[in-house]
Amino acid sequence: MSDKSPYQEKANESKAHVVWHESNISKADRAKVKDQKPKCIWLTGLSGSGKSTLANALEVALTEQGKHTYLLDGDNVRHGLNKNLGMSDEDRTENIRRVSEVAKLMVDAGLIVVTAFISPFRADRDAARELFEDGEFVEVFVDAPLEECEKRDPKGLYQKARQGIIKEFTGIDSPYEAPEKPEVVVNTAENDIEACVKQLIAAII
Ligand SMILES: Nc1ncnc2c1ncn2[C@@H]1O[C@H](COP(=O)(O)OS(=O)(=O)O)[C@@H](OP(=O)(O)O)[C@H]1O
Ligand SMILES: Nc1ncnc2c1ncn2[C@@H]1O[C@H](COP(=O)(O)OP(=O)(O)O)[C@@H](O)[C@H]1O
């Protein structure tokens, strides 16, 4: 987001008068009560690659193991917190910035957070990583070729994008920058859902 945005102008006005408060309970205290290591599991990939499906299945598996989790999904967050954002590059960046900060708060609360956003820009995902301590941020590339995602087209969005009804669609007329060094790559075109979840659990726990 540029420095000329209304959000940034208001932030600049008030910044000088806003003071950080320390809390008596730390992230480590909260994590100890939950008996787990807080983490942010960041799923990135094309629409239809399998982010929501895997994030849901992963949350189920973690909950069955007694872990305390929360799932942040792009479609859902865009109905509430980020309902004032569209799909321009600038709005996607702001979407990911806000979600990264929410995920950081949730990790501070001691949770294992799973996020499912296209998050197409490398710089935005790197900025998210910067908010976390070493080892807390696990970038997962949910990898499936565009042709496979388009064939699945679970919401009929690719068809609408090809017809020009939806503009700036990721992979069609908006870019997707694949991760260069993700902690995990799950290939959803070659492995079934169960195998991908197994791979994720092994990488996380
Ligand atoms: N133009 C365009 N491009 C891509 N996706 C679109 C678009 N318009 C609507 N949708 C639907 O919005 C979901 C993507 O939201 P995200 O918040 O994950 O996007 S982003 O990270 O800000 O790029 C995405 O969800 P997934 O299919 O689950 O990825 C789509 O359902
Ligand atoms: N290994 C797999 N992992 C995840 N989804 C898969 C896999 N194989 C096939 N699919 C199917 O692909 C589709 C992915 O849709 P979805 O999870 O909504 O993707 P996204 O959230 O990335 O848009 C679903 O219909 C799902 O059943």
Account of the 3D structure:
By secondary structure, the protein is an alpha/beta fold. It has a single domain (36-202), classed as P-loop containing nucleotide triphosphate hydrolases (Rossmann fold, 3-Layer(aba) Sandwich), CATH 3.40.50.300. The protein is built from 9 helices and 5 strands, in the order H-H-E-H-E-H-H-E-H-E-H-H-E-H. Helix 3 (51-64) crosses helix 9 and helix 5 packs parallel to helix 6 (122-130). It is globular. The site of adenosine-5'-diphosphate has 17 residues, from helix 3 and helix 9.
What attributes characterize this protein structure?
205 residues; alpha/beta; Rossmann fold; five-stranded parallel beta sheet; 9 helices; globular; binds 3'-phosphate-adenosine-5'-phosphate sulfate; binds adenosine-5'-diphosphate
Task: Please write out the topology.
Blueprint (H helix, E strand, L loop, with lengths): L5 H10 L11 H8 L4 E6 L6 H14 L4 E5 H4 L11 H20 L3 E5 L5 H9 L6 E7 L2 H7 L4 H6 L21 E4 L5 H12 L1
Parallel strand pairs: 1-3, 1-4, 2-3, 4-5
The chain binds 3'-phosphate-adenosine-5'-phosphate sulfate and adenosine-5'-diphosphate.
What is this structure, in a nutshell?
With 205 residues, the chain is α/β, with parallel strands linked by helices. Helices cover 44% and strands 13% of the residues.
- CATH first level: which class? Alpha Beta
Separate helix tally: 9
Tally of domains: 1
- Amount of beta strand: 5-15%
Describe the sheet with the most strands.
5 strands, parallel
What is the overall pLDDT average? 95
The span between the termini is: 35 Å
Attached small molecules? 3'-phosphate-adenosine-5'-phosphate sulfate, adenosine-5'-diphosphate
Which strand order does the major sheet show?
Answer: 2-3-1-4-5
Number of DSSP strands?
5
Family: Belongs to the APS kinase family.
Pathway: Sulfur metabolism; hydrogen sulfide biosynthesis; sulfite from sulfate: step 2/3
Binding site for ATP: 45-52
Domain APS kinase: 38-187
